[in-house]
Design goal:
The protein is built from 6 helices and 4 strands. With 213 residues, the chain is α+β, with helices and mostly antiparallel strands. A 4-stranded mixed sheet has the order 1-4-3-2, covered by helices on one side. The chain is globular. It binds zinc ion.
Length: 213
């Protein structure tokens, strides 16, 4: 029986995949994404493949989102939701991952793609901020579900602080504005491009699939 994970957006599913390895420890790469309806629910299925042993690993998501409604630029999940499947430090690492793709040493990408990646990083930081209670000053440790997240927080306690996260958010917001970023909706299209130009992606077999690993 496959576990079914609650999900609020497709991008969240991709970030989720970055933090899951094959049982053998190998890294998972997205192969295919499909959607279906079951008892009035929308289910997204991601088939991924282990880069080490070649086994397929499948994840099924119960999607509490309207697939026709794209999030606002610079946002990932709907504003009133807090992610269940990606913990706050995983979101921050997701932000770092997006920013890494904009590095000059990275694959050549257009300025529009660069701007969209910055917006996605901004969306990740906003997701992490949602974990801080309204009157709180930092992410509660109980929100850190991943073992690596807990270890990282022990070594970098400032990473949990509201003031650090808000500073990060404001910087990314200013950077996005300076790049003229207005559109993050085609993110996996450009993601796919960056993967291809890095020469490491498999060709997706479905139009809806994208390289998000
Ligand atoms: Zn494996």
């Amino acid at each position: 029986m496959t576990d079914i994970f609650p999900s609020y957006s497709r991008m969240e599913q991709c970030v989720f995949l970055w933090f899951h390895n094959c049982p053998c420890g190998g890294e998972l790469k997205l192969v295919e994404r499909t959607s279906s309806s079951y008892k009035g629910k929308r289910l997204d299925k991601i088939r991924s493949r282990c880069a080490q042993c070649g086994e397929d690993v499948i994840f099924v998501f119960d999607c509490a989102y309207n697939p026709d409604h794209e999030p606002e630029p610079g946002h990932i999940n709907p504003p009133e939701t807090t992610s269940v499947i990606v913990d706050p430090l995983q979101w921050l690492h997701g932000a770092a991952h997006f920013l890494h793709l904009t590095d000059d040493e990275g694959p050549a990408i257009s300025s529009k793609a660069r701007a969209a990646l910055v917006l996605n990083a901004l969306g990740c930081v906003r997701e992490a901020l949602k974990f801080i209670p309204q009157d709180g000053q930092e992410i509660p440790r109980a929100a850190l579900r991943g073992k690596l997240s807990r270890a990282f927080a022990r070594q970098n306690p400032d990473s949990l602080k509201r003031v650090s996260l808000e500073r990060m958010r404001d910087r990314l917001s200013a950077l996005a504005a300076s790049l003229g970023a207005v559109d993050s909706t085609s993110w996996w299209e450009l993601w796919e491009k960056t993967q291809h130009s890095a020469g490491q992606a498999e060709k997706p077999d479905e139009s809806e699939s994208g390289g998000c690993s």
